[in-house]
Design goal:
By secondary structure, the protein is α/β, with parallel strands linked by helices. It is about 55% helix and about 10% strand. A six-stranded mixed beta sheet has the order 3-2-1-4-5-6, sandwiched between helices.
Length: about 325
């Protein structure tokens, strides 16, 4: 008996709760905060989707929907049919649990291969739509990267970096060679012990949850990426402005000379008419405030922090008038 079938049998033996009176009025859409969607890239071996789904449910994840992104290659189409059959036979065949999203170009033609820049752009748009739609409904998203071409995993990570927040997860699936060779879509409890879901770290582009909510408005990933860059640049400028305002007038003079003219502490001291010790102390204060404002305590001292400070302030001093 497979793990899924065993769970279904246990569920059937549980006593049923007393029925409740029907609610008056239209029934609200069932989109609880804890509900989640599994988004998976699909290749010719759909086994990874069912194994990943079972592993997530074993962890207690309430997966209510499985979205698979796929090409129109004949082998992938066959894999999709196998997946549909496995979910149906495994008790997951209720209406709406599986949603297949074929990669389509701008003309609506389904893409068979990912061999051109236009086809890869179509992949990115499809992956973006697969993630943004459940997130707009308030669902958490689990992104499984174990199936399909490598380029699918790479572009899926771009979407995760763009749209994911604290509640979302990216996974890779590891399974024993004998499980892969078997091509079985569902495993027994003993067989499933060798299957591992490995979390993939995501370095999110957005600093604030409000940024993610704004990006969900956009229907096109390239416009969302452009907007994210604009927001990041704005946040960077705000942080640098806050840092600059913390400096004393004397510290600003030293920082400006360092950015515009460079040189050693002794050379800066000579140009400013100050002692080298005074300049060294002022620069030490500048670096400390720079680290504290931008959260760079881990950045080393000496040349590393000096070079980073110069690079960050150079454009700011060119583009805006600082007082």
């Amino acid at each position: 008996m497979t793990r899924t079938a065993a769970k279904r049998r246990r569920a059937q033996t549980k006593p049923k709760a007393p029925s409740r009176p029907a609610a008056v009025g239209p029934r609200p859409e069932r989109e609880g905060k804890g509900e989640a969607t599994l988004v998976a890239t699909l290749g010719t071996e759909p086994q990874v989707v069912t194994l990943g789904l079972d592993a997530l449910r074993e962890r207690g994840e309430p997966i209510r929907e499985v979205v698979v992104v796929h090409t129109a290659a004949p082998g992938v189409r066959q894999g999709l049919m196998r997946l549909e059959r496995a979910l149906r036979e495994g008790g997951d065949g209720e209406e709406g649990v599986l949603r297949a999203m074929a990669v389509q170009d701008v003309s609506g033609r389904e893409v068979e291969d990912l061999a051109t820049e236009g086809e890869v752009a179509a992949l990115l748009r499809t992956l973006y739509r697969a993630v943004v739609e459940p997130k707009r409904r308030g669902r958490r998203v689990h992104l499984l990267l174990a199936g399909g071409r490598k380029v699918m995993a790479a572009y899926a990570m771009v979407v995760a970096q763009l749209l994911f927040d604290e509640g979302d997860r990216v996974w890779h699936l590891l399974s024993p060679p004998e499980v892969e060779r078997s091509r079985r879509m569902r495993l027994s409890d003993a067989e499933a012990e060798g299957v591992q879901l490995v979390p993939v770290p995501v370095l999110r582009w957005a600093l604030f949850p409000s940024t993610v909510r704004e990006l969900l408005v956009w229907g096109d990933p390239y416009r969302a990426i452009e907007r994210q860059r604009e927001l990041q640049e704005h946040e960077r400028r705000e942080l640098l402005q806050a840092f600059w305002e913390r400096l004393t007038p004397a510290e600003r003079q030293v920082a400006e000379r360092l950015v515009h003219e460079g040189g050693t502490n002794a050379e800066l001291a000579r140009r400013l008419g100050r002692s080298p010790k005074t300049v060294a102390n002022q620069l030490r204060a500048v670096y400390q405030k720079y680290r504290g404002t931008l959260g760079l305590e881990a950045v080393g001292r000496g040349p590393a922090i000096r070079a980073r400070l110069v690079a960050d302030l150079a454009q700011l001093l060119r583009d805006v008038t600082l007082t």
